[in-house]
Amino acid sequence: MSKDAGAVIVKLAAEVGSKTALDVYAKQKEKERRKRIDRRLRDTKRLMKNYWEIKVHAGDAISSLAEVEGDDYDFFKDLMESYDELDVQAIVRSKARSAIMLAHIDAMLRVYEITSCNSKNPIDGRRYRVLEAMCLREDPIPVREIAEAENIDDRTVYKDLDAACEKMSALLFGIQWIERG
């Protein structure tokens, strides 16, 4: 084989190798992007499904003994004094984080309600109503009842919830949802 033929083969092999490496890299980046979107969507669903628990925690969690009255005062005082591993500051920080997150969720829920109810597409309004019925009430409405009220199939209720959570993800995570998604 001539030197020129060998050089051509090496050049072709390098081109094929670099193209393959770029393809593998692009597929890996796409896989990571989808994984981030899935994680954000999963996080949004968890926030929506635990909305009332977050609301209760943000409003009712005790952050100091000054908030405790009556018989509970002695109980909490003993608890705080007898457990070295009880991290009271962590409880206080958790309550504050819950309150901040809840305020953000509530603001974005108002935006979503307004935009979906004003949409020309009736499906948008239905998706908000499904989210509200399943997640935002203290006593969620069963899927079967939602389906009957909306005149849709049970499976459509779950699909609407997923679609509503996608919209909420965009509202909750903002530009991160688009840029890193």
Defining key terms:
181 residues; mainly alpha; elongated
How would you describe this structure to a colleague?
- The structure is a single chain.
- The protein has 181 residues and is an all-alpha fold.
- The chain has helices at 3-49, 51-60, 71-82, 88-117, 122-136, 143-150, 154-173, 175-179.
- The longest helix has 47 residues, at 3-49.
- The model has no long low-confidence stretch (mean pLDDT 80).
Beta-strand fraction estimate: under 5%
Class of secondary structure makeup: mainly alpha
* Molecular shape: elongated
Given as residue ranges, the uncertain stretches (5+ residues, pLDDT < 50) are none
Number of strands: 0
Summarize the structure.
This protein is mainly α. The protein has eight helices and no strands.
Write the layout of secondary structure elements.
Blueprint (H helix, E strand, L loop, with lengths): L2 H47 L1 H10 L10 H12 L5 H30 L4 H15 L6 H8 L3 H20 L1 H5 L2
Helix pairs in contact: 1-7, 2-4, 4-5, 4-7, 5-7, 6-7
